Fold SDR family oxidoreductase.
Amino acid sequence: MAPEVVDVRILVTGGTGQLGSAVVARLRPAGAEVRVLSRRAAPDVVRGDLRTGRGIDSAVAGVDAVVHCATDYFGREAQLARTLIEAARWASAPHLVYVSIVGVDRVPLGYYRAKHETEELFAGSGLPYTIQRATQFHGLVRALLAGASRLPVVPVPRISFQPVDVRDVARRLAEHALDDPAGRAPDFGGPEILTATELAQAVGEAAGRHRRIVPLKVPGETFRAYADGGHLTPEHREGEITFRDYLAGRVDHGERDHPGDS
């Protein structure tokens, strides 16, 4: 059971998203007063837009920590961070907790570069901060493989992944928010490192499909970095929920892909 926390106010950006909502679900039972930031009006949220800055000053005012789960896949990751940092400077200089990705400094992918740039913004902000890199989420890995699993023959890249569950990452982020700033925290990885072939087999089995899987070597600098394990953290396997556990949970909640899809 989480310890009781007294008079701790925490803002979670992107708090209605998959990761953010899991962080909120961890913090509230611990006794923290949680503000959920969202661009869209909804019950129990503070409305604000990190892209325009509208509502951010009031959202940050008076909080002890901010867990920054909001993200942008279209090149504005750093812009969101700058807006948050500027608001935090004018507020009470809260502890900023940022979730990043293992390998952002090793894999030359545009989104990874943006995450790495954002890490540097937090580190150079002069504000108390914690940066937590995590490996790829289960849901992302499943989404990458689920479409191909409908084909008669499933091509997969000849690389491995270390998928981690958002609930495990949320647990670690909540711990950071309730603790002292750690700077760059140790990486956080899933419990297993599996080849894309093994992961595709698991996805197919969960969907009731049995397909031939063909691993392929994919050219290019990005896939070479993946093949070299730049996105893995073998020494950090603190995640507890395995990929098959995650898939089984989707089936239990009625989210299984239709077996007749092909």
Q: What stands out?
A: The chain has one domain: 9-252.
